Amino acid sequence: MAQILDPIPADAKGQILCCYVNATSKIQIARVSNVPKWYFERVVFPGQRLVFEAFPEALLEIHTGMMASAILSDKIPCGRLRVMDESDPTQSAPGPEQEEMPKRPHRNPTIDNKGIVLSDPFLMTALTSV
């Protein structure tokens, strides 16, 4: 997959296909921070999927947008974001340095046009008495 505006350096080998999903209700900025001679930064809207090429050792920084700033909220090794092609027998299973993420139930929150979460299937209100 070619990235038209900012391709990976031509002399580099070993790039992988990665996927990141913004599962929040806020706008995020995704930035690869530690690849020399390469600048990659994208805005990722709530619910949007970002597919890109990087190196397994690259770090994807996630900056969450606030009113007038952005806060670094996560650093994810790109090896953990790798998209596996099940039809390609040459790809191996993740090794100990690249553990699989535990499966979590799918969440479908209802979000209004201002980005406010109206309902979340795993968010429950409980009444207690003292």
TrEMBL record:
Residues 83-115 are annotated as: Disordered. Pfam families: DUF1830. It comes from the Bacteria. This is DUF1830 domain-containing protein.
